[in-house]
């Protein structure tokens, strides 16, 4: 019997797992490198989440302002659907769009890592 896949809102509780966070960092680096963006973590922030957030936010902000098509391609690669994104933006109308997208990217990467971990444990 397999466990249910956690939703994006439920993955927050996994942010304190070092083993998963390292895999999230690698996933995000891979996705962003596909579009020639380098994500380099130096351990300057309090948490890996904050460091990822501050690395990704300016990229997303630039894409929102200068290359929306490329942003959509990046989100497609990360597997964040445009309809889902629009729903989240409507739910958080007073929040910064780039911040919402950045948060979704990190949570989606974590969700992918969790799913792979669940799958790997189920086949062992």
Describe the structure.
- Helix content is 66%, strand content 0%.
- The model has no long low-confidence stretch (mean pLDDT 86).
- It is globular and about 40 Å long.
- With 124 residues, the protein is mainly alpha-helical.
Strand content: under 5%
Sheet/helix structural class: mainly alpha
Percent of residues in helical segments? Answer: 55-70%
The shape, in one word, is: globular
- Arithmetic mean pLDDT: 86
**Alpha carbon gap, first and last residue:** 13 Å
How big is the Rg?
15 Å
Number of helices: 5
The largest β sheet comes out as:
none
Number of strands: 0
Low-pLDDT ranges: none
Question: Helix and strand succession?
Answer: HHHHH
Chain-wise SSE layout:
Blueprint: H1 18-33, H2 48-66, H3 68-78, H4 82-91, H5 97-122
Helix pairs in contact: 1-5, 2-3, 2-5
Structure in a nutshell:
With 124 residues, this protein is mainly α. It is built from 5 helices and no strands. Helix 1 (18-33) packs across helix 5, helix 2 (48-66) crosses helix 3 and helix 2 crosses helix 5.
List keywords for this structure.
mainly alpha; 124 residues; 5 helices; globular
